[in-house]
Amino acid sequence: MTDSEMGAVARRALPLLDLTDLGETCTETKIDTLCRDAKAGSVAAICVWPRFITQGARALSGTGIRIATVINFPEGGTDCARATDDTAEALRDGADEIDLVLPYRAFQRGDEAAARDVVEAVRETCPDTLLKVILETGELRHPDAIRAAADLALAAGADFLKTSTGKSPVSATPEATEAMLAEIRARGRPAGLKVSGGLRSVADAGTYLALADRIMGPGWATPKTFRLGASSLFGALMQARDL
């Protein structure tokens, strides 16, 4: 990839970035740094643990940068009441977007109803809030299983599909992303995709942008339809932005 190509990818990718800190050692100081970086890069959103929503919302007030948080994370359990209670609390604290882990283990063992119930319950709790459903594609593995999980999530009300929690051994892959984009296109209703986990380089961002362009069409990938969830990518994108 030439410098000019890297610069072009970086300028496309930065506004699509969900700048994320879901580390076990996250602190208020790290959230302050995350918010400063978010403003410097004019990213789409930050994605943080629920306990940091209020801090993030305060720091980014008036910037247009959205606050995302995670629910049912990372285990993907089947407790509807806990998922809805946590969602309601996140909304009260100022979350703009909910990233919900699909009960993927229940889905894998054939209990689609349990998986669907959690998504539908959270959808009902946040009817006017952007809902991203994390499929944990590294655990689903096969493209057919990924497409089936994507179909379930979209039917249950997801606005976005998201590849991964970033906590499993395998996170985002081009093969999983292609399967998810194909399902979004096949359903024929507006829905977005967030590629999350394992992105490290400008070339990685370019790979996923090229997939979106090929499957969904040039110009489809905007912050309203396509996100990249990767904090480790931020420095590389900022460095390449002015090439």
Secondary structure blueprint with pairings:
Blueprint: H1 3-13, E1 17-21, H2 28-41, E2 45-48, H3 53-59, E3 66-71, H4 80-93, E4 97-101, H5 104-108, H6 112-125, E5 130-134, H7 137-140, H8 143-155, E6 160-162, H9 174-187, E7 192-196, H10 202-216, E8 226-229, H11 234-240
Helix pairs in contact: 1-10, 1-11, 4-6, 8-9, 9-10
What does this structure look like?
With 243 residues, this protein is α/β, with parallel strands linked by helices. The chain contains 11 helices and 8 strands. The protein has an 8-stranded parallel barrel, surrounded by 7 helices. Helix 1 (3-13) packs across helix 10 (202-216), helix 4 packs parallel to helix 6 and helix 9 (174-187) packs parallel to helix 10. The model has no long low-confidence stretch (mean pLDDT 97).
Instruction: Give the fraction of residues assigned to helices.
Output: 40-55%
Stretches where pLDDT is under 50 for at least 5 consecutive residues are none
Q: Estimate the global geometry from the Cα principal axes.
A: globular
Task: Briefly note the structural class of the backbone.
Answer: alpha/beta
Q: How do the strands of the widest beta sheet line up side by side?
A: 1-2-3-4-5-6-7-8
Mean pLDDT: 97
How many separate helices? 11
Q: Tell me the strand percentage band.
A: 15-25%
Strand tally, please? 8
Distance, first to last CA: 12 Å
The major beta sheet can be summarized as: 8 strands, parallel, barrel
Order of helices and strands: HEHEHEHEHHEHHEHEHEH
Using the CA coordinates, give the radius of gyration.
Answer: 17 Å
